[in-house]
Amino acid sequence: MKLTQEQKAFVEDLLSRMTLDEKIGQMNQESPSIVGGFDVPFSELIEMMTDGRISQEEFGRIMSTAKQDFHEDDIRAGLVGSQMVNDPRQNNALQKIAVEESRLGIPLIIGFDVIHGFRSVFPIAIGEACSFDDALFEETAHMAAAESRAHGINWNFAPMIDAARDSRWGRVSEGPGEDPLLGSRFARAKIRGLQNDRSSALNYVAACTKHYVAYGACESGRDYNTTSMSVSNLYNVYLPAFRAAMEEGAATVMAAFNDLNGVPCTVNRWLLRDILKKEFGLDGFVVSDANAIRECVIHGIAEDDADAGVQAALAGMDMDMGTHIYKDCLKAAVEQGTVPMAVIDEAVRRILSVKVWLGLFENPYVPEELIEAYEKGLPAEHVALCRKAAEESVVLLKNEGNLLPIKRGQKISLVGKLAGDANEVCGAWAMAWKPEDCVSIQKGLEAAGAEVKYYPCGGPEGEIDFSEVDRAARDCDVIVAVVGETCAMSGEASSKADISLPGGQRAMLQALLASGKPVVTVLMNGRPLALGWEAENLPVILEAWHLGIRMGDAVASVLLGDVNPSGKLSSSFPSVTGQCPVYYNHPSTGRPGSKSKFTSRYLDAPWDSLFPFGHGLSYTTFAYDNLVVTENPDALEISVSLKNTGGREGTEVVQLYMQDVSASLVRPVKELKDYQRVTLAPGEEKTVSFTLPKAAMGFYDNAGQYRLENGLFRIFAGGSSRDCLMQEIRLAF
Ligand code: GLC
Questions:
Q1: Is the overall model pTM greater than 0.90, yes or no?
Q2: Is pLDDT above 80 for 467?
Q3: What are the domain boundaries of the chain?
């Protein structure tokens, strides 16, 4: 995010004319609060309903009578820098107050959680990442940016790029999986898609990479829990995606709720100032997560709100999301000298810079005709892109007997509540979809001309109707069982101690299997699940995540063979929950897991993942051969032959891994270094080439220093982290 000299001068001039109140106002983000019976921030009201302090009915009653306070008077007084609203006309009204009624006319930056699409919802990130398609990552982000701007949102709290290895954590659904390279490529593409099309002020938004940092390493997968790790682990696993996002020019960053090694990210000067702003070069600003400054008191690092506010400001936290602590406490802190004016000026300069870069001073409003266009319906190309993204995100985990694809004309019994519920296709963090845009798997199969009869039978919650299961199994050629999780079972505050199929779904599958009819299992879920029994007993498993508004079309296309699945897992799947965290890029240990007792293994479960990172089958088959590694002064030139040995065209994600076999710190047994999507006709063979810069073959040590060390390296190429060809090479850098 670069400003011109003229823009920089504009910012400095504006800053010089601002009062201290107005400066602190820019550091204050508001969200609508519910008034009339409950005067709490809207997010708090949601929490109260979520944790049962008020019933759904009570919540509904409040919402029906409550008015939302958008803090207009504070905006008019120049005391609000940002709002969090997703209604375009409401946003125009708030902007009008800020621009035309406040003393300096500084527009609001209006943020919202547009994590995987606004109204055109594409797959949850853990699913989209399975496409390994950087161009797609960018395209969907660009679509989200345009839809955001059309609704008055000019700041997306996205991409979420937290590396995560423990699927008990519900927020694995929001990010690009366990691998730092895939996460970095995902981050870069998302930043480009959100920010780079400046052909019109309506085509780009400010990105907000989150959650900085290591939130995905929360102990025991329990959300908001403490995180602790070595500096080398932080730099090698959790920081790479943020470094990549900064290199791509991300405008803003959101700090994470968790503490890291005892210091909450919200007040962590080392993370915010030394690494993010100085080492990584963030030009824009840092915003706290919701209520996170106040939570520093609960963390036990601050005596009270004022202390938390001072610590956050000094640590480099530029904007306060939702606590009013900056608004209420910072002025006194500046007047007492505990917070220098220079700290305030730096924060405000960063915030104003993003607003200028967004063009908000020239174009603060959404044109009415654009608002009306969306009220008429979604752009056809947006719907088509959602379908394409969904189709590329499906991963074929198992296809014994090639039961898939199903031939049209075969009688299908479609089983499972999730299959018929279009309200469950969008997954976590999708708040603006409309029912009329969403397609269930049932509707998708019907629209695709399949001969299908639907039997709900049961789902992730409630009882299973086994008499209906029996009926479903009777009159059909093949059963398609859709099982998994509701949207509410993943996302924020959705950690689970047991990630096997919830409810009675396994029993439902057992009953279906017992019928003797072929069973095709489709997973609709927001996280890797513990599928030991399923993988052992079910012939076919198709991972379909929560694919967004066109889920039904996409799953139907894959089931019926119109689309050949090409997805590869962005996260490892365990056999049982007790294996978590489980991931492919682990150190060897001195006793790598094996059949013998005294090795790194369990008595009661496999030691390795059930389905590894990078795994995914196709309706055709691919063969790898002839891996060749040659060294030139600055890079390794790597080539591998890939052949489509099956009967239909297919796309394979060819993956390149390396291992630093012996180094001054133990290194992972494999590290993803590159990947390419390759489409081949039946019988076609191609040499796939990679260039691996030697400079990319190092690692960070416990001083945060990058090290390239001479020695033996292994280079791998293949169709998953487990199935690879390998060559060794000794290097001296
Ligand atoms: C939430 C989430 C964060 C989101 C923010 C605003 O608590 O942690 O990802 O952007 O609040 O909704």
A1: yes
A2: yes
A3: 392-579, 622-731
